[in-house]
Amino acid sequence: MTIDRSKRRRFLQAAAAAGVLGVAGCLGDEDVDPEDDDPLDDDDDDMDIGDDDDDVDEDVDYEIRWGTSTGGTMDVGLAVEAAVSEVSDTLAYSTIESPGYIGTTYRVADNEFDGGIIDTNSLNNARTGQSDFADDPVDILPWQGFLAFPYGIYVMAREDTDIETFDDLAGANVYPAEPGFSTRDTTLDVWQQDPIADIYEEMNIVDMDVADAPGAMEEGSIDAAIAYGTPGVGNTGWVVEYDARVDVRYVEHTDDLIEAIETFPGASLNEFDNAQEEFAWDQDIGTDEIVTWDLNITYAFHPECPEGAAYELTRIAAEENDVIRQSEQRFTPENAEDLVTGALDDYPFHPGAAEYYQDAGVWDDDWVIGDVDQMGEYFE
Questions:
Q1: What is the C-alpha to C-alpha distance for residues 241 and 316, in angstroms, rounded to an integer?
Q2: Structural domain 150-295, CATH architecture
Q3: Distance between CA atoms of 200 and 70, rounded to whole angstroms?
Q4: Computed over its alpha carbons, how large is the radius of gyration of the chain?
Q5: Do domains 62-148+297-360 and 150-295 have the same CATH topology?
Q6: Selecting from 3.40.190.10, 1.25.40.10, 3.30.56.10, 3.40.462.10, what CATH number does the domain 62-148+297-360 have?
Q7: pLDDT digit of tens for each residue in the chain (380 aa)?
Q8: Which residue, among 145, 186, 147, 139, has the nearest Cα to 378 in the 3D structure?
Q9: Are residues 309 and 62 in contact, defined by beta-carbon separation less than 8 angstroms?
Q10: What pTM was estimated for this model as a whole?
Q11: DSSP letters of 236-305?
Q12: Domain map (residue ranges) of the chain
């Protein structure tokens, strides 16, 4: 595999600086517009996935490059890198900054990484040629590996509005996050499902940067906004900000909303009876019981990533996850069964990951194992 050590050193220096900014609260969310400047523009257009060359560490069997977007996702990626360095004798892992989940999907397909951290909705849209991939499809799909963490998404309304249930969002000014964010794309995809599509069609969708949204809520130009975070860790940064500035309450879910979530393949339904604690709200949101549509953030492999490397990385995620969480609590799986939570139906798993799941006794025979000779044929 081709690894540029000088670029790796420059990345680590940049990551260290980013860590300082992150502590100060200056970094945004890990969703990034794929049209933003690409940190890989200076790299070679193609890399040899899984091939050995003189740059590879001779003390390990495999060395892999992993595309990772910023914010909390980068924190998880660096924690996995640290854990691999500590516990594996066969694998070396390099975290490479990549512009967002959608951008990472394109870059894995373009052979720039051995894999990337990508949400399941982007994977599903790449497979079906929807959303960003309708006009710019990929030739190959990243293959499923394992869950890294979920984003539970739900809706909050300003306390001074008349919005109480999801149906009341018809006619309201609703903010589903910043254009280009995967959380926004997933939310709009869910809302366009029957039987709630008619509610969505009557919403006034607000477009703005997440940095401006808390102020707009405070001023009254946004009536309701999505909230999202990792259960047990807390909400994402801009939601934490509007929690501090605006009185809000949970927009009560309806049976129709639950049906729409269950219908949509790119997200999974989750229910909480202690939402105040799970998402670390600083104010009373009016209930402890909420429903979320979960955007699952996963490790997805390039089809030609060596099977041994995929097996070892999956093993570390299943068996050494406590080491990962020493650096970053957002990595939530605690065992092999957790790693396959929210897996996409009829979407290929990398054979190295599949082999580990078979050995661990959690493999479902209805799942698909990718065949590298057919890697361009798994589209719908």
A1: 35
A2: 3-Layer(aba) Sandwich (3.40)
A3: 30
A4: 20
A5: yes
A6: 3.40.190.10
A7: 333 333 333 334 344 444 433 333 333 344 544 444 444 444 444 445 544 444 545 678 999 999 998 878 999 999 999 999 999 999 999 999 998 899 999 999 999 999 999 999 999 999 999 988 999 999 999 999 999 999 999 999 999 999 999 999 999 999 999 988 889 999 999 999 999 999 999 999 999 999 999 999 999 999 999 999 999 999 988 999 999 999 999 999 999 999 999 999 888 899 999 999 999 999 999 999 999 999 999 999 999 999 999 999 999 999 999 999 999 999 999 999 999 998 999 999 999 999 999 999 999 999 999 999 999 999 99
A8: 139
A9: yes
A10: 0.78
A11: -HHHHHHHHHS-EEE-B--HHHHHHHHH-TTSEEEEES-HHHHTT-SS--S-S-EEEEEEEEEEEE-TTS
A12: 62-148+297-360, 150-295
Distance CA 166, CA 155 (A): 8
Q: Which amino acid is at 8?
A: R
